[in-house]
Design goal:
alpha+beta, 4-stranded antiparallel sheet, 3-stranded antiparallel sheet, 13 strands, globular
Amino acid sequence: MTASQMANEDVQVSLLATSRFGGLAAAVLAERFGLTLQYAESVLEQGYGLLSPRLDRTRARQALPLLSALGLRVALQPVESMPPDEFCDVSIRLRDSGHAPKLIQLLEGMLGLGNLNAVSFDGPQGYIVKDLSLARAEWLCHSLRQLNQVYCAISEHQTAFYDLFADRPMARNNHAEVKRQLRLMGCGIGGFGDAVGLGLERRVLDRILAQFPNLGLFGVDRAFQRYELLVTGKGALSGQEFADFMMSRPTIQGIQSRELMGALPLRLENWLTRPAAKQFLGDYGSIGIQAETRLVRSTDKAA
């Protein structure tokens, strides 16, 4: 195929992210892609969707600057491609990242990759395999779950939300400015675990990270988050009630009841999904015990 043929090849156009310019954006989409105004408005309201199953590539590219100015993000793909919103990411973690060279070699073969090591699967999200079809993602996870020492999870692009964290304490003025920007974008501020911001869409996360590149900020897909639960105080319980409860926990080993208060905070639960962590936090609160959750940032520290 010649360069001119490639340039004029028809493409499929899909909306990936919408903006606040609802009425104007709908009119532009209707005019540029031959849509009814009602259909354009419905795609914008949903936030993603097919704009044109087949359009001349040159004409499609000519629309990009105006769409970008309106805050719209679109994808140009080969005709009859899977819509981008149907893609998934898969997170892969190892239970014991320090003692799995054969397992890593096996994973390299399954993933068609080389040069993987224990560090590849560490961190707050593990190793991410991006942009798989749902069927392919489910097949991969089904295969991985048959292997001992492997965790995996799936996140669908269209329903993915991220929480914002920092890898180090922020100065007060920097923290205040990050929170101000999060509020302007309609995102939650902290409130669960050690998160800085809650419920960010991918495009919002990218904007925040670009705006504050030197503060050690990073986002974690909620589907891939794992938490530990720490008991921080006896709360409403008497000293004896607190000791009786704590000493009944199998995770408390080698600590005498008289040493409990001095040993706080103590980790009682680990490797919890986000929903499970919220449930445990509520359960401990209902008992009257003070507790908090914290994102697991390293597999080794989760052991």
